[in-house]
Amino acid sequence: MVTYFPFDWIQSPNFGKRPATAEVDTIVIHSTVIPTLEATVAAFTRTSSQVSSHYVIGKDGHIVQCVSSFARAWHAGVSEDPTGRKNVNDFSVGIELVNLNDGKDPYPTAQVTALRYLILSLKRRFEFGQITSHANIARPLGRKTDPLGFPWPQLADLGIPLKP
Ligand SMILES: [Zn+2]
Fold first, then answer.
1. pLDDT tens digit sequence for 57-84
2. pTM of the prediction?
3. Distance from the CA of 31 to the center of ligand 1, in angstroms?
4. Which of 10, 104, 113, 114 keeps 20 to 30 A from 65, CA to CA?
5. What are the boundaries of each domain within the chain?
6. Ligand 1 mean position to 81 CA, how many Å?
7. What kind of fold does domain 7-163 have according to CATH?
8. Which residues have C-beta within 8 Å of that of residue 37, sequence separation ≥ 6?
9. How far apart are CA 89 and CA 67, in angstroms?
């Protein structure tokens, strides 16, 4: 039996084409710092913000897609993955979790469950070699800390190597 989560598509203008040669094989997990789903989507749909991600997940598990996963969202910034590839936006799917990123704000079960569901559905389309954090790929190292306090073991059984 399949459980579907509440899902909306609210398109962001902040995206581009992936390079023709790019193989999407990486998931980057973020936390928003912005306290609500609505305010995050508002930021991602404002041209002047120049940021976006493919998906945002609210604390209640509500998923909003802002950019097609076939396109290049603008979530990672200056970045390099654990294998030394730069421009992580080229080959990754960015997923933002609504969270204050203070290390104390919790990631509720409903939110993590929706994230797991989303990753499993993306796995039907892409062959992922890693799930990593914005903190791990942002350059210079230390530029980003998100998603601080995220319960990584809860993604350990999805069949994708974790590189938090
Ligand atoms: Zn981030």
1. 999 999 999 999 999 999 999 999 999 9
2. 0.97
3. 6
4. 104
5. 7-163
6. 14
7. Lysozyme-like (3.40.80)
8. 56, 57, 58, 59, 62, 64, 98
9. 12
